[in-house]
Amino acid sequence: MRLYNTLSKQKEEFVPIEEGKVRMYVCGPTVYNLIHIGNARPMIVFDTVRRYMEYKGYEVNYVSNFTDVDDKIIAKANEEGVSAEEISQRYIEECKKDMAAMNVRPATVHPLATQEISGMVEMIQELIEKGYAYAAADGTVYFRVKKFKEYGKLSHKNLEDLQSGFRALQVSGEDQKEDPMDFVLWKPKKEGEPSWPSPWCDGRPGWHIECSEMAKKYLGEEIDIHAGGEDLVFPHHENEIAQSECCNGKPFARYWLHNAFLNIDNKKMSKSLGNFFTVREIADSYDLQVLRFFMLSAHYRSQLNFSRELMEASGNAYERILNAVDNMKYFQKKAAAKELSAQEKEKLEEVRGYIKKFEEAMEDDFNTADAIAAIFELVKFANTNLQEDSSRPFIDEVLNTVVKLCDILGLKVEKEEETLDAEVEKLIAQRQEARKAKDFAKADAIRDQLLEMGIELKDTREGVKWKRV
Ligand SMILES: [Zn+2]
């Protein structure tokens, strides 16, 4: 498996630190609002990387944080007159709902920055002791960038260029820094902000140290893959490297993966341009599986342009897979109970060829665009080769392959509705029986159970009707 490493700017063979295991860290969102579709891209892309790694037999420890203390969260809390915690908790819950709707699996661990403060304080302390950080008079702690000779290695910037940029950007109030490039590890509390005690002052951590600490705590000092959006390369990931490597004395992450931007109608997404969509807004018009399909229809390192037209096209393409699966299920029910014919055996070789194509695409730096193309070849194969008189094992194998390959991409192609409907009907029948037996407690319990499943019952003259709520 080859993946493109931002650190070396080339594709490299994937060799895990520990055989059969992958330690992977993905920077998560700052939770002060509903997530937008720009946040959704890394979630979908790196969930797919994880799924493929698991398909290959790796045990993946996938850690993705929530930044739950930040200026934006505090501003929102003040605006609403509630605590920062209330804001972050609310949007973590909402984010998890969107993730589920996009079929993004929960991480092995979703650490919260506010729950890890003591570890961050320890890490900062260690950096001070090793001479990589210093506390200014007001209690702010800075990282001494020039002390880390490899600074800039991820973003491929050299210190001199950076320095001149920083001189131009230097703002007032920063004159307590030894050097304009130094960045904040700990900042003193301001009135009305959440804060924690530390040896330097009551305050809160800088954003970068959060990820260094959480990666270390949940994955160890050396990790295999660190991922995130390309906007995080500098300064966030560059600073993470500086902190982690100076503190731990070891290389931090072996492979750095970054997804490219998502544009809207060929323009950068921004609130001021009014082309800013939350995942929730997209869910009003589309099944989020279509959004997932759309995101994966391009390579993760290519810029992706979001437009209604492209979403419609994605919806139609995705529908073609669903229709093929439906047809195969129909054939499956009608299939003759006979063995594979010699011709079918030969045809299955062709199916294996599509699996190979799919795998080759994925092993080439997760080229999901080509992987989807392989699925469409298989769909075309299914549409031309499956018939009512095909044998059951033949249909099963083709159908299972389509479902499996789609599942690796996190695309659901089997209708869950049908099984849900069957379960609902069964429960309704049980409730009717309970009512007949005058066991009203049981009947009410079933009604409540259904309501929890999002099914509302209505007793009418024609019998029981149900609807989703
Ligand atoms: Zn991070």
Structural features, described:
This protein is of the alpha/beta class and 469 residues long. It folds into 3 domains: 258 residues, Rossmann fold; 96 residues, Four Helix Bundle (Hemerythrin (Met), subunit A) (Up-down Bundle); 47 residues. Helices cover 50% and strands 15% of the residues. The protein has 15 helices and 15 strands. The strands form 5 sheets. The protein has a 4-stranded parallel β-sheet, with helices on both faces. β9, α7 and β10 form a beta-alpha-beta unit. α9 crosses α10 and α11 packs parallel to α13. The longest helix is centred in the C-terminal third of the chain and has 27 residues. The model has no long low-confidence stretch (mean pLDDT 93). It binds zinc ion. The site of zinc ion has 3 residues, from loops.
| Unreliable parts | none
Bound molecules: zinc ion
How would you state the average pLDDT, rounded?
Answer: 93
The largest β sheet comes out as: 4 strands, parallel
The proportion of residues forming helix, as a percent range, comes to 40-55%
Q: What is the count of structural domains? A: 3
The fraction of residues in strands falls at 5-15%
Tell me the series of helices and strands, N- to C-terminal.
EEEHEHHHEEHEEHEHEEEHHEHHHHHHEE
Taking the alpha carbons of the first and last residues, their distance comes to 45 Å
Q: Which strands sit side by side, in order, in the main sheet? A: 4-3-9-10
* CATH architecture classification name of the largest domain: 3-Layer(aba) Sandwich
The backbone outline, from C-alpha atoms, is globular
Q: How many individual β-strands?
A: 15
CATH topology of the largest domain: Rossmann fold
Going by CATH, what is the homologous superfamily of the largest domain? HUPs
Please identify the structural class as seen in this structure.
alpha/beta
Assigned CATH class of the largest domain? Alpha Beta
Radius of gyration: 27 Å
